[in-house]
Design a protein that fits this description.
- By secondary structure, the protein is α+β, with helices and mostly antiparallel strands.
- The chain contains 7 helices and 9 strands.
- The strands form 2 sheets. The protein has a 5-stranded antiparallel sheet, with helices on both faces. Strands 7-8-6-9 form a 4-stranded antiparallel sheet.
- A hairpin with a 7-residue loop joins strand 7 and strand 8.
- Helix 5 runs antiparallel to helix 6.
- The longest helix is centred in the C-terminal third of the chain and has 30 residues.
- The protein is elongated.
C-alpha cells in the first residue's frame, strides 16, 4: 500500500472515496490519489463489496477546487467500470490500518449491499437552466399587456417625473419573471421525471437561473433522456439556456458519511 517509512506511519491514514460491487482480486486505478503525492488508488475487499481508497497524510483537506477536483476525478475513473456509492469528501481513517476498513465493510455490509443494488445500472445527470436576459424580457413585454402599456406610457414622460412608475414597472417585471420561470421549470421537470428513477431539485444561484436539478437515470433510458433534453432545448432555446452534464458521481442521491 505505497511506500511508508516506518516512523511516519502514525502520520498516515487511509482516504476513502467510494464503495463498489467487486469480489475479485484487489482492483487498481493508478497513482491518482488526492493531494500532490500521487498515491495509488486501489480497493480493500470484503465479500463482494470493496472500498476504493488511497494512502493519505492524516489531515483535513480543504474544500478547495483543486482538492474537490482530484476527489471527483478518482470517482469518475472508478465509474468507468463500476456503479459507485460516493463517500463524503475528506473522509480519512485515523490510522494506517486496513483492518479498520474491513471492519467498517463487515459491520455495514447489508446497508452498503442494498444501496449498491439500488444504484446498479444508473447514473446521475445534471441540468441547469438559465433565462436569456434580453429574449426573456421581450417575452414578458409581449405576454403581459399591462406592463407593456405602462412602459409605453412612461416612455413619453420626463424620466424624473416617471421615477416611481419606473420602480413599479421593475417590480411588475420581476413578479412576472418569477411566475414564468416557475412555469418553465415545472414544464421541464414534468417532461423529464418519467424518464428518471429519482429527481433532486437544488437551490438556484444567480438571478437568471430557474432550474438546478439532478436526475438519477437508468443506463438504458439515457438516450431517451438525451432526446428529451434536445427537444426541450428546441422548444425553449430562444428564451432559455440549457447546461446539461452527463455521468456524474451520484452525490445528490447517495453520499455516505462514514465514521472512521
Amino acid at each position: 500500500m505505497g511506500n511508508i517509512v516506518e516512523q511516519d506511519k502514525d502520520k498516515e491514514g487511509i482516504y476513502l472515496y467510494c464503495i463498489i460491487r467487486h469480489a475479485d482480486a484487489v482492483a487498481e486505478f493508478g497513482p491518482i490519489g488526492i493531494g500532490t503525492r500521487q498515491d495509488r488508488v486501489y480497493t480493500i475487499n470484503y465479500k463482494d463489496i470493496s472500498m476504493v481508497v488511497s494512502q493519505s497524510a492524516k489531515m483535513r483537506y480543504e474544500a478547495r477546487r483543486v482538492n474537490l477536483t482530484k476527489h471527483t476525478l478518482v470517482l469518475e475513473g472508478v465509474m468507468k467500470k463500476f456503479s459507485i456509492l460516493p463517500i463524503r469528501f475528506s473522509t480519512i481513517s485515523e490510522t494506517y490500518d486496513e483492518s479498520k476498513i474491513l471492519k467498517i465493510l463487515e459491520e455495514e455490509y447489508d446497508k452498503f449491499s442494498d444501496l449498491l443494488d439500488e444504484m446498479k445500472g444508473t447514473k446521475e445527470l445534471g441540468l441547469k437552466v438559465l433565462a436569456l436576459e434580453e429574449p426573456i424580457y421581450k417575452y414578458i413585454l409581449d405576454k403581459y399587456q399591462d406592463i407593456r402599456t405602462l412602459k409605453e406610457k412612461l416612455a413619453k414622460l420626463d424620466p424624473e417625473k416617471a421615477h416611481y412608475q419606473l420602480v413599479k414597472i421593475g417590480e411588475m417585471v420581476e413578479k412576472a419573471l418569477a411566475k414564468e420561470n416557475s412555469n418553465f421549470s415545472d414544464d421541464i421537470v414534468e417532461v423529464l421525471t418519467p424518464l428518471s428513477d429519482e429527481v433532486k431539485i437544488n437551490d438556484n444561484y444567480g438571478e437568471r437561473m430557474l432550474l438546478n436539478a439532478a436526475f438519477l437515470v437508468k443506463n438504458e433510458n439515457e438516450n431517451e433522456f438525451d432526446n428529451a433534453i434536445n427537444a426541450l432545448d428546441e422548444q425553449y432555446g430562444n428564451l432559455l439556456s440549457f447546461k446539461y452534464v452527463g455521468t456524474l458521481p451520484p452525490y445528490n442521491f447517495v453520499t455516505l458519511v462514514i465514521n472512521t
